[in-house]
Amino acid sequence: MESEENNDFVMELKKLPEDERLAHAILYLGKKLEKQNNEQKAESYQIRTSLVIMIFIMTAMLVLIVMMYVKL
Fold first, then answer.
1. Are 9 and 28 in contact (CB under 8 A)?
2. What pLDDT, in 10s, does the model give residues 3-36?
């Protein structure tokens, strides 16, 4: 699907004058980089959330182990 978009974009660029081609290519790359950046941000938020949950669970387990040890 992405290659079809690229082919359509290239065909569209060939019809334009040189200056407009450059401007459209820069805008296209900018949008593509912005999309990629947003995906990376979302992924980093997921990883960070997973790590926080894991730390919370490990802390709860440690507290339970200490409570069991103190009762004995």
1. yes
2. 776 777 777 767 768 777 788 788 888 899 999 9
Residue 46 makes CB contacts below 8 A (sequence gap 6+) with none
Question: Residues with Cβ < 8 Å from 16, sequence gap 6 or more?
Answer: 24
Single pTM value for the model? 0.55
Contact partners, residue 25, CB within 8 Å, separation at least 6 = 13
Domain boundaries defined on the chain? 2-71
Query: Helices marked H in the chain — which ranges?
Result: 2-14, 18-71
Q: How far apart are CA 40 and CA 36, in angstroms?
A: 6
